[in-house]
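Encode chain A's predicted structure.
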Amino acid sequence: MFETVSANADLQNEINSLSMQMLHFNTKTTAAGFFDIDARLLFQIAGGGATYLLILLQFYNLNRNSSLT
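Encoded structure for chain A:
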């Protein structure tokens, strides 16, 4: 039982050390160095997809309404 507690304490210390290193280590994810991949880009992609879907829905409704008459 004491070995488990000691192993958990060692694991907790390693996790704390890793989290501190990651906090102070500035990383950037890029697409082959052309542009950064970050939250801003992901929001732009989601916004573009939503806009595309809205336009598609408008054309679908236009086509559906014109076929009813």
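The chain has a mean pLDDT of 87.
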